[in-house]
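FAQ: What does the model actually see?

It sees only this:
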Amino acid sequence: MMTLDLLPPGTRALITAVDWSALVAEEAARLQALGLDVGARVAVAHRGVFGGRDPIALTVGRMTVALRRAHARAMQVEAL
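And it is asked to produce this:
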């Protein structure tokens, strides 16, 4: 398995597991409200260009969401 922060740009994936305990409760709730949960299909649209390459822009359905690498690291994905 690979974590979402390692997914190459343009690659589509399925979120297979999320370590919610690694995230602050309010942030975890916000991510779930945006549809970032087990079973969601996502794709990395862009990555930041400076420093730690934050944020990561994800496509979730018809929506684009900016996500910190620390949050993406808590999500396991399977490439489609």
